[in-house]
Amino acid sequence: MTEYIALLRGVNVGGITVRSADLRELFEALGFTSVRTVLASGNVAFEHGGREASAKLKARIEAALGDRFGYEAWIVLLTRAQLAEVVAAFPFDEHREGWHPYVLFGSDAAHLEALADAAGELDPDDDVIATGADVIYWHNRRERGVDSAFAKSTAKAVYKRTTTNRNLRTLHKLLG
C-alpha cells in the first residue's frame, strides 16, 4: 500500500467549488483507502495498493475530478515519502515571525526555471526563494503577501496549469 498526497490546483477560488466531503467521496469511489482531506483548498491524503504508474494515476484522478466537478483539473501527485523530503528540505526558518513559508510545486521544469530566474530581481526584504527538486521554496513577508513581486509572478496565467502553492503548515498537516 502506497501513501499518496494529491494537491489540487485552483479549487475553491475563481468559481470552482469543491467541498471536502465531495472530494473525499470521489477519491473513495476511485478505490482509494484511508482518504483524508486537509483544509478546504484541495489537499487529499490517501492510500492506493495498485501498481499503476504515477503518471497514469495522476491522469485518472484529473479526469475524474474534471468529470465530477466540471472543470479542467490539474494536480500534483506525490508519495507521502516524497512530500516528507520536500518539507524536510525547506531551507528557511519556517517559524520566522512575520513571514509565510511556502512551497511552489510545478510540473513544468521550464516554468519553475523561469520563475526562479525572475526572482533575481526580488527585494529580499519581501521575498526570498530557493530551488529544490520540482519545487521552489519561498519565504514571503506577510505584510506584502499577494502584492509582492514573486506572488505577482506566480499568478501569471502562463503558470496556472503547471504550478500550485502550499503553505508549509498545510504540508505538515498532510503529513500528520
Automatic annotation (TrEMBL):
This is DUF1697 domain-containing protein. The lineage of its organism: Bacteria, Bacillati, Actinomycetota, Actinomycetes, Micrococcales. InterPro entries: DUF1697. Transmembrane segments: none annotated.
